[in-house]
């Protein structure tokens, strides 16, 4: 029992020695809130959000304006402008007759494509003329005019035929006549 009492006494003495080292829990520390910093931070976040929203709205409006589809220009109007641009180049006077006929036949082929939805620029003249046999969009007179026009263009472009000034003028007139007679009348 003495042993127990000595260890008990030691424990009590040790407890009282350590009791001076143990301190009570400190109360919570409250930091002083600086409302000015919070207000400035909130305003910055608000301004950034507002700027992002404005950019989004502007982009959306621009996209909407781009999506507005303008009605396509009439095929005859495009062809007339191209014919006048070709005339203004003055290729026959410069001796560029082959180039002149390439561009003249291309204008008519694109006109036929835009006007009648026939893929004329991608076909040879023979393929194009055979596809015209099945269409009812063109009258027989227009088909013949187109056949003569394209055959003359091919002879000049590929057979090195040198047309006269009258033939050059007649080719231009034939192209214009074809457009005049087949355009959509509103």
Which outline best applies? rod-shaped
* Biggest beta sheet summary: none
Structural class: mainly alpha
The number of strands is 0
Strand content: under 5%
H and E string: HHHHHHH
Contiguous low-pLDDT stretches (5 residues minimum) are none
Question: What is the typical, i.e. mean, pLDDT?
Answer: 83
Helix content: over 70%
Q: Counting H and I runs of at least 4 residues, what is the number of helices?
A: 7
Q: Report the C-alpha radius of gyration, rounded.
A: 46 Å
Your description of this structure?
The chain is mainly alpha-helical and 186 residues long. The protein has a domain at 75-182. The protein contains seven helices and no strands. The longest helix is centred in the N-terminal third of the chain and has 33 residues, at 35-67. The mean pLDDT is 83.
List the helices and strands and how they pair.
Blueprint: H1 2-19, H2 35-67, H3 75-89, H4 97-116, H5 125-133, H6 140-158, H7 165-182
Helix pairs in contact: 3-4, 3-7, 4-6, 4-7, 5-6, 6-7
Quick description:
With 186 residues, the protein is mainly alpha-helical. The chain has helices spanning 2-19, 35-67, 75-89, 97-116, 125-133, 140-158, 165-182. The radius of gyration is 46 Å and the shape is rod-shaped.
What descriptors fit this protein?
mainly alpha, 71% helix
